[in-house]
Amino acid sequence: MRVAFDGACLAAGPITGVGRSFLDALAAYAAAGTAECLLLLPDGVDPPPCPGLRVVAAPRGALRRQLALPALLRSLGADLLHSPVAAVPLRAPCPTIATVHDLPWLHEELGEPSSAWRRFATRLALRAASAVIAPSAMTAADAARLLGDRGPPLHVVPHGTELGPAPDAASV
Asked: Which of 9, 45, 72, 133 counts the highest number of beta carbons within 10 A?
């Protein structure tokens, strides 16, 4: 089995919680050795040190990725695409797993700004996925509300990251 992991979240600047969780899961998956792991990494991003991982150059930009990723996945013979975010290709040649970390704009009381385009694009991408992962029951419920009756299966998989050293009391 050949599993492609979408590394686009690593191109957005410093590694955040989403990126750290993604890298930890990717390293664990590659170490398991049960499948060939491909990291689709946008040009110009340094690959993570991860044994057992094949890095493949991937396009940057939302539109370019929608147009080019299906052909790239086909040429690689990918059996599955796992994305650490909700942005999956709408016409992927293989099953896709999207991860939705939160949908704060569904909660008006939070005052999170959102556009009609963002809501539409998120709903469309999640509906295109073969399965959706959420890190909490609340986020899964939000995704179910967003998707309505036309959504793929939702799975709650809590983030699993290694804890770093405790911060120095003086630096907090």
From this structure: 133
